[in-house]
Input
Amino acid sequence: MNVSEAIKTRRSVRHYRPDAIPDDVLGRVVGLMRLAPSSRNRQPWKFVVVRDKTTREHLAAVCTYRRRSGEVRIQRFVEEAPVVVVACGFEDQANVFYKGDGRLAIAPGAEVAAGTGETITDAQSTLLVDLASAFSHLMLAAMEEGIGTCWVMGVDEERVKAILGIPADARAPMLMTLSYPAPETGRATRKSLDEIICHERFG
Ligand SMILES: Cc1cc2nc3c(=O)[nH]c(=O)nc-3n(C[C@H](O)[C@H](O)[C@H](O)COP(=O)(O)O)c2cc1C
Output
């Protein structure tokens, strides 16, 4: 499968065949995720691959979303996927941009330039973007193996961390289910190119 085919045929998969994902297949998929770019090549991440059914059940219980009515729903499909990959991120390893003038900085609170006394208050970590970069690779690499994915950010991060023993100072803002998809109809639509592309200047 080439990249354009993978992009065109991918969809979020929430209904699965029960088949396990063989180790060698999973190894190839996470091996490609490893090659994802991150800001300054910091790779401020670690990924927990969960296959254990009980752990998946515990994770599903803390994957919730709130409907417009206010009702909170559990994302049950998470426990049914044979593999769940949880992305962990470390703010102290991620790159930080100082928004004032785009200079690279070490961390919020650091001095803008040695001896100036001016400290960085308006800094932006690339951590979430880096994790999204890895997950985009994971999603497309899975396609080549016939594996479907669903990216899940509706998670109770602190409870995910408690379930998996993730250190308190780490983030765990998203997970991805991996599974062999059951036949499904329908595909999410997209805005038209006209709506999302403009040329030379915003308009
Ligand atoms: C950052 C991010 C977070 C998402 N979180 C959830 C989620 O918590 N639960 C879920 O069922 N789908 C989640 N999705 C999947 C989107 O709903 C889905 O990608 C979108 O509706 C487009 O559908 P498609 O992936 O089938 O093209 C998430 C996707 C992204 C990129």
Observations:
- The first helix runs from residue 3 to 9.
- The mean pLDDT is 90.
